[in-house]
Amino acid sequence: MAEREVDRSVSQTVKAQLALRDQLLSGTLRPGERISELQAVETTGASRTPVRMALVRLEEEGLLEAIPSGGFMVKAFSERDISDSIELRGTLEGLAARFAAERGVSARELEPLKECLAAIDELLRQVPISVDAFSSYVTLNARFHALLTELSRSPPLIRQIDRASALPFASPSGFVMAQSALPEAQQILVIGQEHHRVVIDAIENREGARAEAVMREHARLAVRNLRLALRNRTHLDLLPALALIKSAND
Amino acid sequence: MAEREVDRSVSQTVKAQLALRDQLLSGTLRPGERISELQAVETTGASRTPVRMALVRLEEEGLLEAIPSGGFMVKAFSERDISDSIELRGTLEGLAARFAAERGVSARELEPLKECLAAIDELLRQVPISVDAFSSYVTLNARFHALLTELSRSPPLIRQIDRASALPFASPSGFVMAQSALPEAQQILVIGQEHHRVVIDAIENREGARAEAVMREHARLAVRNLRLALRNRTHLDLLPALALIKSAND
DNA sequence: TGAATACGTTATGTATACAATAGCTGGAGC
DNA sequence: GCTCCAGCTATTGTATACATAACGTATTCA
């Protein structure tokens, strides 16, 4: 077939992986649904080999599940899975913060973190916060968490945190969106910012236990807010990963 | 070529993955070395497609690293990477123990754990412990940790712990071998067994914080012993994953 | 003599053809 | 009428051929 358009700027495997991930997170592919390779070939534009590579990678990422008899299906998650994933990431970030505090961090390394902190402070001065500012907050928050993770200087830990964040609802920015609809949104962000401030202070003063504790509390706050957001089911379309939640669960 | 022997009992992909992992852990492939697909095809007996799938999976497992210009190389680890990985797994197991304690576990579910405990007690009655008994200990210990992980009833956490254990030196049985050469071997095992006993007790009494703390201490003990074992470099051949340690490091 | 370029070789990335299996449907027998 | 078996179809697993890019080497020019 000469009709196949080939984009040579990125590898076919990466292209297929991105396209399939989009389909998964947008809900085009439903949880529990079996993924047809041939269908994926048509929708992604890549041939079967790179599509299969992409499927294997997505399985390792945790978005797909291998079917024993062959092929893959879209993984389904319960609300419990989601809150556990957030707490899991919080625990890992806690360890990262402790490593950073115990191993020592120079003032120069801490600078970008403090800039993030100041930028978020600036955003939160708006009451109530605008949609644009909230969007900026999400970006800055993700940046803060990524920088903090790096401070641990532990490649295995950084890798594991990245893997834990692969599940979209477990990423720092993935579920924050859903909170924006809550009446307590502003207050939640202010408390979160306080956590950020404490963890930096703890790292500066080499207080490992305190740094770890505050990051875990940070995650627990997120879990509580996620539950709240799931209760008043308003603006849940802001939580893209909701497409992956089992329809019939507790 | 008609000379290719095809074993149809397991998939070629799995066969290739196992064969390559063996080569990695046995040191046939050196850290930093580039992996040639064609060479892997020859040594594994599978064709290029399943070999490539196996390489992708091994990369996701953390044993290989993708080269930007294409292909894969054997990942190299520092001693710091190894001790961080053990502490990382201990942290996750601590969370699992806490989940188990907080969520409640029936006496029936705890039974297999207690059987493990008793079987290990029996082994440790030998002073000094025999090589065979030590080998049994390694198996039982791995079983104990696996069962404990299951008690968390948290699929995302179980999955993450499995991933953290993929690095051979981070698995419950992976590094224990190296300790057998230490003069304090017996004492170390007794202390570890005490940790096992405490975590079961804490789970039974629904003391989440205590359950978590003891598992983390358990991992910290393992880190200390690993360091000891690496200092007196006797019997290090018992640590198969040593093949993955960078030769020139701190 | 050294450096740069061009060409060739080798290895990876991609596509497709072929093989085998699992699931489904239809027919036949009890 | 229901169940079981057989054959077919559709989909995945595997193999290989082809394309392309990268690296190394050799030759030439400065």
Features:
homodimer; mainly alpha; Four Helix Bundle (Hemerythrin (Met), subunit A); 2 domains; 10 helices; 64% helix; 3% strand; globular; disordered N terminus; DNA-binding
Write the layout of secondary structure elements.
The structure is a homodimer of 250-residue chains.
Chain A: H1 12-26, E1 34-35, H2 37-44, H3 48-61, E2 64-66, E3 72-74, H4 79-103, H5 107-124, H6 131-151, H7 155-164, H8 176-179, H9 185-204, H10 208-231
Antiparallel strand pairs in A: 1-3, 2-3
The structure holds a DNA duplex (30 and 30 nucleotides).
SS content category of chain A? mainly alpha
Helix and strand run of chain A: HEHHEEHHHHHHH
* Overall mean pLDDT of chain A: 86
Tell me the quaternary state.
Answer: homodimer
How would the global form of chain A be characterised?
A: globular
The name CATH uses for the topology of the largest domain in chain A is Four Helix Bundle (Hemerythrin (Met), subunit A)
Q: Hey, which two chains have the biggest interface?
A: A-B, 27 and 27 residues
Q: What is the top-level CATH class of the largest domain in chain A?
A: Mainly Alpha
In which range does the helix fraction of chain A lie? 55-70%
CATH architecture of the largest domain in chain A: Up-down Bundle
> What is the rounded Rg of chain A?
20 Å
Strand order of the largest sheet of chain A: 1-3-2
Beta-strand residue fraction of chain A: under 5%
Low-confidence stretches of chain A: 1-8
Termini distance of chain A?
Answer: 49 Å
Can you count the helices of chain A? 10
Number of strands of chain A: 3
| Count of separate structural domains of chain A | 2
Main sheet summary of chain A? 3 strands, antiparallel
CATH-assigned homologous superfamily of the largest domain in chain A: GntR ligand-binding domain-like
